[in-house]
Amino acid sequence: MDKMPLVSVIMPIYNGAAYMEESIRSVLSQSYKNIELLICNDASTDTTAEIIERLMGEDSRIKTIRNEVNSGIAISRNNLLDRIKGKYFITQDCDDNM
């Protein structure tokens, strides 16, 4: 797997508890495995943080940051782009499946 370039998948989330797990699992189940999934919790007030923590315990490819205040999708994506390590990146919305 280390000969395949790392692909960074960035996912901003705000109050996505109702549908984000399916989207995260969709990213992680792709046939291309050399990925990192970077999630920005944009100060969610639902159970988003708990779901992210649980899924992080299941898969070490998930990494997360949290905005202290709700900052919107553009700032969240920029915060994630500052942290990518992959040669390539793709964006994924938390309410969409790949």
Summarize the structure.
The protein has about 100 residues and is of the alpha/beta class.
Helix content: 25-40%
Tell me how many strands there are. 4
Query: Using only CA atoms, what is the Rg?
Result: 13 Å
Low-confidence residue ranges: none
Enumerate the strands of the largest sheet in spatial order, edge to edge or round the barrel.
3-2-1-4
Largest sheet, in brief, is: 4 strands, parallel
How are the secondary structure elements laid out?
Layout: E1 7-13, H1 20-28, E2 35-41, H2 48-58, E3 62-66, H3 73-81, E4 88-91
Parallel strand pairs: 1-2, 1-4, 2-3
Word description of this protein:
- There is one protein chain.
- It is built from 3 helices and 4 strands.
- A 4-stranded parallel sheet has the order 3-2-1-4, sandwiched between helices.
- Strand 1, helix 1 and strand 2 form a beta-alpha-beta unit.
- With 98 residues, the protein is an alpha/beta fold.
- The two termini are 21 Å apart.
- The mean pLDDT is 94.
Notable features of this structure?
four-stranded parallel sheet, 98 residues, 3 helices, 30% helix, alpha/beta, globular
